[in-house]
Amino acid sequence: MPLALLALAVVAFGIGTTEFATMGLLPQIADGIDVSVPQAGNIVSAYALGVVVGAPVLTGIGARIPHKRLLLLLSGLFVIGNVASALAPNFGLLFAARFLAGLPHGALFGVGAVVASKLVAPDRAATAVSRMFLGLTVANIIGVPAGTALGQQFGWRSAYVAVAVIGVLALVALAAFVPHQPRGAQAGVRHELRAMGNKQVFIGLATAVVGFGGFFAFYSYLVPMLTNITGLSDSSTTLVLALYGVGMTLGTLVAGPLTDRALRPTLYGGLALLSAALVLFWFTVHSTVPALITIVVIGAMGALITTPVQILLMAKAKDAPTMAAASNHSAFNLANAGGAWLGGLAISAGWGWSSPVLVGAALGVAGLGLAFMGGRMDRGGEPSEVITSSDAQQEQVTAAQ
């Protein structure tokens, strides 16, 4: 793996750690800033809101900035957001700091995905992008449990300090290992926005929101399902979440090569298998070992969707893929909010703690339907190839002129 991909994976590791470790530290944060746990939970929403807003806005602002310089600027903003989170004296400033920390999230992944795809041959673009995403999945195995333990032992502020240190290390690695990649002659926010108007880009984003909403309908209520139905203790759920991260890592490892070989079949298979695994969990949740095995499978299938959706959006946006790639992470955060909301409605309706998995399965099937719709639109059209070289972009511009 090129060192530049390793640097991008470190960025993803820091992002994954700061996003999910907060959830495990809500009681400590609530005590520290003298608010209730539900009110402290709003800082999770603040981060997600930052992602949704920041992905298109920061990508648009940086549309003419060379990719390496933009990555460094975004990483610097990520460090500042986490330092501000560690220093925030009250709820209002912590809310603002988490929003600030979330702003560069989607843009970092979007720009990073485009950079990663240019580091290798075009037929290995998806594999390169998936290697960057490995940092996010490994964060669920190592970063989140370690950050949570650090925050519980030395105070929640120490977790954000640690993430800021990771951000500084990532910034140094990006500066040292990522090569300069010039933007195309037509680079600019209008060029990116025109690419976003492609119907296939819209359908791809809708597939991410709906299909991945099924993943989050399950994940948002995994801990209460395990404690109330499976009978696991609260202390063991952290290890289960790490096991879930193992599944995500396995799915990410195979997603890249599969997407390089067959993009849409990989997306179809991931959504179909995710829906089937969620239905299976409705039966296995009552027994510990089958439930744990199914959790690993669900984690793998959820990760299997991420890379093909990312590559599909980059392909359909053609020579202006950065905003589409970044907006994918806005879509994932909308999926997070929507899936959690629908799963909560099912529980509130009295359908039981396991009802979110059936909601998730239904959303997965709906996402599969949207993916098939996009596939039908591809028939007779252009193949889903990702433009990965600035030379190819320049050739297209010259041909157009």
From TrEMBL:
| Membrane-spanning residues | 42-63, 70-89, 95-116, 128-147, 159-180, 201-221, 241-259, 266-285, 291-313, 334-351, 357-375
Task: Name where it's found.
Answer: Cell membrane
Provide the residue span(s) of the region labelled Disordered: 381-401
Task: List, as start-end ranges, the regions of compositional bias called Polar residues.
Answer: 386-401
Main localization of the protein described in the UniProt heading: membrane
UniProt-listed InterPro entries: MFS, MFS_dom, MFS_Efflux_Transporters, MFS_trans_sf
Q: Report domain Major facilitator superfamily (MFS) profile positions.
A: 2-379
Q: How does it sit in the membrane?
A: Multi-pass membrane protein
Domain of life of the native organism: Bacteria
Give the keywords, sorted.
Answer: Cell membrane, Membrane, Transmembrane, Transmembrane helix
UniProt xrefs under PANTHER family? CHLORAMPHENICOL EFFLUX PUMP RV0191 (PTHR43124:SF3), PURINE EFFLUX PUMP PBUE (PTHR43124)
Protein known as: MFS transporter
